[in-house]
Input
Amino acid sequence: MAPFDGSIVTIAIPSIASSMTLGLETVVWIALSYLLVLTVLLINAGRLADLRGRKRSYMLGFVVFTAASALCGASASGFQLILFRALQGSGAALIASNSPAIVTESFQSWERGKALGINAMAVYIGLMAGPVIGGVLVQNFGWRSVFYVNVPIGILVVGLASLKLRERRTARSGESFDLAGAATLSVALAAFLVALTLGGSYGWTSLPILSLLRSL
Output
């Protein structure tokens, strides 16, 4: 679902821009806010799951992702959509960081390779299916449908996870989360990714881009 939502929105962007009368400088953040938050939080979300438990983090990720999808579909402005897309990215980070770890812990060594292969296959199916399904949904039901389609799936997954998943490891009460390190990593990654994304538009020697790169 995380890669699927990253690719499905690409098809809907022209319709979103037309419906909300958004300029290019705003439209680019609809996709960027999701991918940026997903990338920045991925490592920290995995560490948090190590400390607090994978099942809890995985289910929280789907709850956040599903709720944010509904909010994206109901957005009344470009700012709201970008904000809720960022929230959606935080849920996707919790999902993506825990999925391979849960698969690894749930299968025996002789089954693990096949299970991880199926998990990786699901990622690429999501990436490929996103534009196709997105085109069908936008053409027949409008751009909001590309977000609403996540809601029933998310509710189903949360229900199945609560019934089927078992916590394989206990939460580590003696270890603490490195908040300063997490913040430093997040800021550095965000600055680097934004600079790479917007460097061609603003100019690689422009003050905003140089400031982002120097902050590293």
